[in-house]
Amino acid sequence: MTSGLAAAATLTSTGEAVQFWLLGTVAVVGALATVLMKKAVHSALSLAGTMIVLAVFYLANGAYFLGIVQVVVYTGAIMMLFLFVVMLVGVTAADSLKETLKGQRWLAAACGLGFGILLIAGIGQASLSSFNGLGAANARHGGNVEGLANLIFTKYVFAFEITGALLITATVGAMLLTHRERTERAKSQREMSQERVRSSHLPPLPAPGVYARHNAVDIAGLLPDGTPSELTVMQTLRRRGQIRDVSDESLADLKALEQRSGERLGRDRADDGLAKNDSAGKDLAEDGEEVAK
Amino acid sequence: MENLIALLVAAPLLGAAVLLCGGRRLDRAGHWIGTLFAAASFVVGVVLFVDMLGRGADDRTLHQKLFSWIPVEGFQADVAFQLDQLSMTFVLLITGVGTLIHIYSIGYMEHDERRRRFFGYLNLFLAAMLILVIADNYLLLYVGWEGVGLASYLLIGFWQHKPSAATAAKKAFLVNRVGDMGLSIAIMLMFTTFGTFAFGPAFEATGDTSEGKLTAIGLMLLLAACGKSAQVPLQSWLGDAMEGPTPVSALIHAATMVTAGVYLIVRSGAIFNAAPDAQLVVVIVGAVTLLFGAIVGCAKDDIKKALAGSTMSQIGYMILAAGLGPIGYVFAIMHLVTHGFFKAGLFLGAGSVMHGMNDEVDMRKYGGLRKFMPVTFVTFGLGYLAIIGFPGLSGFFSKDMIIEAAFAKGGTEGWILGCVTLLGAAITAFYMTRVMLLTFFGEKRWQPDAEGHEPHPHESPKSMTIPMIVLAFGSVFAGGFFSIGDRFMHWLEPVTGHDHGHAPVSATTVTAATMVVLVIGVAIAWTMYGRKPVPVVAPRGSLLTRAARRDLLQDDFNHVVLVRGGEHLTRSLVYVDHTLVDGVVNGTAASMGGLSGRLRKLQNGYARSYAVSMFGGAAVLIAATLLMRAV
Amino acid sequence: MNPVNYLYLAALLFTIGASGVLIRRNAIVVFMCIELMLNACNLTLVAFSRMHGNLDGQIIAFFTMVVAAAEVVVGLAIIVSLFRSRHSASVDDASLMKL
């Protein structure tokens, strides 16, 4: 960067060269990972890495403003947007790297190879051995940002305004594209509450098996207050009177459970626990009788 | 006086319109209306004729322009009439004979329920024929030409319930189309050559025109004449045209329409005079047809077909005379007029015979009719004497003149033509004597027809006999009246011109020779048909007789050469069209279809495939850029 | 080292991105590859800006970024609505443009 002051240099500093070779490798690896990673999230992260490396290269090339903008806009905003969409869409069959189009991979490889070779040959052919550096240009208006600002608001002011219009248009377009038309009026909160009262079940219905100790269909679920709700059992079974009482079963279960845990944990402890569990079991049995009545 | 000319045409045209559009309510009076309009036209003709006689020989041509028909820049066609001596002759012949035949038809068509329509068609024919002869330009002449063709078609096929009549009408129309093509081509050639259709300016322009062009025009006009006048090679329709009612045969296919070709050639004399090659072809056609028709006439047992062969032959005489140039024009027209009288009379007589014989046409089933139909016998007999050229009668003068003119052509050509016409005269004498003997002499040979009706030969009503008598008068006296003092020649000379030629033999010698061949012809016929009884069923006859019975194989020739040839041509053209033309078209379509079927596989709908193409294209672009820089 | 190397790097990145577009089926990854290509271009612009001693290249890169942002917004919206209607983010599934 210091060599930027020279009118026409041919070599950069050694530091920059080292930085280029190190980070350049990272950038290429990141790009390859973007293409080759199976999961879209990994691709996005690899791309973010490449972009950060590119931001560093911008800085190294004297484009300080662009370097910062690269980090903020690309890595920050755009890549986050990508991640949002990746999360929204989720994992799909499209993630598979298996090729479905016949000959597509070979053609792609051939075209890519040919294109790359030709492009690099073109660059190699151009006589670009010397460079001017940005020192003078940056210094003219007192810095890189001021220099850019000077250009944007004078020479490129129309393009600048038009890009502004473009951004607005893009925003509106995105809204239009993702907007989903509602076909019927949404229910208001008042309407929903009135429906609930009319349905004779003010509290929410328990899902089958809630608070139950058993997953058989003929055992009623328990309400939050501990009472079993017959509504959770199939109508057919209710009519036949084939609902099993929760309480007896649970008492037996509990006993068996206590016994097994007591055997595993040891004698002495088990004795205390047994006394405690007995009282708990009585409570539960009483509850069950009340419900039965 | 000029304003009267249009009346000539207007009267029969109005008659046709009234009769054809009037509907059934005119059925009762239709024949009277038709006859009235025809007679009105004749009266107008006579008035004009008297007026014309009152003027000097060079001041006799009248013009009347009705309206400008096709007024286009560089293409001017008027509906205009020209009445000169030639037209006048035709007008009188057409309206005179036409009126007589109208009267005759009143009796002849008495029992036909479509009589009103018949008279309408007859009036239509008169109008068209008059347009033809008084038009002052070829385009209007063409209108009349097509008009008579139409009327002829309608009248030949008048008894359209008979398939033979319908076919004959179609045949006549189609063969006439060939000739009409010739006339239309001639008119186009005239327009490109002279820049006008009108007779006067066109004939004046012949002087500045190359002979080749004039020959071409002349040959096309001859083709037209051949079609309309039934000359070889377009003669095949006339025999079949006899399917029409007999008055039609008399008026259209003997006296007037078939002579339109002669009129055309005489009218276009200025063109033919300047094109000797065309004239030579005209003469050849006339000579060939003369013999052709005569031979056919000898073999036919159908009385009308025998007369049709005779008509063909006599028109051959006229065409031959017209082809001789100024030597013969006058005689062609004179023979035309006298022929109009006696041939119409003969046809009317034939019609009268058929009328009395339950429409039997086979002469072998007639015989001895002179006792049953005296008037018909006498009038027919006078017509017969006139046509064979019995001294003092019409045919004697007019035919003799043509034979003399043929000799007067000079050189080998003159000798050949003279001998041909003499031979024709002999054959004419033979076949007409044959008709006469078979019909009116010998024993009666008629038999009951299939339903057992014995024919009761009887004389025809007055409406039929009176026209026959009038025409018989014409047959007897017209020739003498025209020839004595060269009246007709002086009358027509201002229009057609006349040239005496260089006769190698004297007129007396020619007349004597004619008399000799006449006697020979009659004698042969007498030995064959007069001395011994005639078999009812025709004997097989010689090869020539059988060929002549089949119209000298003209239909067979047409069938083999034109019909079969045409069929083969169309079939091969269809084959070429199906295989080559369609093959190319379908092959192109199929190959395009196949190619696009392959190409559309590139359109697989996958965006990535398209992206590969774009990427490859970008690579090619870079390569091209690099190459350009390297170069 | 000569700054031309930045150009080589950019060419490499661009080619990798383009190949990714051709190879991957997930529309989102394809889109990321397009972003990679855009970034490669930006790097070229910045490097040229330095070589020529001129800030215009950076301005162009800046505009590229803005346009890329707009493009991402719209593109992702398209992907989302496509996913909603077809329940797939595969570019191969949207292959209606064929016979």
Automatic annotation (TrEMBL), chain A:
Listed PANTHER family: NADH-QUINONE OXIDOREDUCTASE SUBUNIT J (PTHR33269:SF19), NADH-UBIQUINONE OXIDOREDUCTASE CHAIN 6 (PTHR33269)
Entry similarity comment: Belongs to the complex I subunit 6 family.
Upper taxonomic lineage: Bacteria, Bacillati, Actinomycetota, Actinomycetes, Kitasatosporales
Protein name per Swiss-Prot or TrEMBL: NADH-quinone oxidoreductase subunit J
Membrane topology: Multi-pass membrane protein
Catalytic activity: a quinone + NADH + 5 H(+)(in) = a quinol + NAD(+) + 4 H(+)(out)
Top EC class, one word: translocase
Transmembrane segment boundaries: 20-37, 44-66, 72-94, 106-128, 156-177
Subcellular location field: Cell membrane
Annotated keywords: Cell membrane, Membrane, NAD, Quinone, Transmembrane, Transmembrane helix
Function (record text): NDH-1 shuttles electrons from NADH, via FMN and iron-sulfur (Fe-S) centers, to quinones in the respiratory chain. Couples the redox reaction to proton translocation (for every two electrons transferred, four hydrogen ions are translocated across the cytoplasmic membrane), and thus conserves the redox energy in a proton gradient.
Gene3D superfamilies xref list: NADH-ubiquinone/plastoquinone oxidoreductase chain 6, subunit NuoJ
Record region (Disordered): 183-206, 257-293
EC number: 7.1.1.-
Composition bias, Basic and acidic residues: 183-198
Source organism: Streptomyces clavifer
Keyword flag Transmembrane: yes
Primary localization: membrane
The keyword Cell membrane appears for this protein: yes
InterPro entries: NADH_UbQ/plastoQ_OxRdtase_su6, Nuo/plastoQ_OxRdtase_6_NuoJ
Pfam families cross-referenced by the UniProt entry: Oxidored_q3
Automatic annotation (TrEMBL), chain B:
Segments passing through the bilayer: 31-54, 89-106, 118-135, 181-202, 214-234, 246-266, 278-299, 330-351, 372-394, 414-437, 466-485, 505-526, 610-628
Residue ranges annotated for the NADH:quinone oxidoreductase/Mrp antiporter transmembrane domain, each copy included: 135-420
Pfam families hit by this protein: Proton_antipo_M, Proton_antipo_N
Domain (NADH-Ubiquinone oxidoreductase (complex I) chain 5 N-terminal) ranges: 69-119
Compartment(s) where it occurs, according to its Swiss-Prot or TrEMBL record: Endomembrane system; Membrane
Primary location recorded for the protein, binned into one broad class: membrane
Entry keyword Transmembrane: yes
Membrane-topology descriptor: Multi-pass membrane protein
Keywords carried by this UniProt record: Membrane, Transmembrane, Transmembrane helix
InterPro entries in UniProt: NADHpl_OxRdtase_5_subgr, ND/Mrp_TM, NU5C-like, Proton_antipo_N
Domain of life: Bacteria
Keyword check for Cell membrane: no
Protein name (database record): NADH-quinone oxidoreductase subunit L
From TrEMBL, chain C:
Enzyme nomenclature, EC number: 7.1.1.-
Family note: Belongs to the complex I subunit 4L family.
The keyword DNA damage appears for this protein: no
Keyword Nuclease: no
Role this protein plays: NDH-1 shuttles electrons from NADH, via FMN and iron-sulfur (Fe-S) centers, to quinones in the respiratory chain. The immediate electron acceptor for the enzyme in this species is believed to be a menaquinone. Couples the redox reaction to proton translocation (for every two electrons transferred, four hydrogen ions are translocated across the cytoplasmic membrane), and thus conserves the redox energy in a proton gradient.
Transmembrane feature ranges: 6-23, 28-48, 60-83
Native organism: Streptomyces clavifer
NCBIfam families: PRK05715.1-2, PRK05715.1-3, PRK05715.1-5
Principal subcellular localisation of the protein: membrane
Name of the featured protein: NADH-quinone oxidoreductase subunit K
Gene transcribed to yield this protein: nuoK
Subunit structure: NDH-1 is composed of 14 different subunits. Subunits NuoA, H, J, K, L, M, N constitute the membrane sector of the complex.
Membrane-topology descriptor: Multi-pass membrane protein
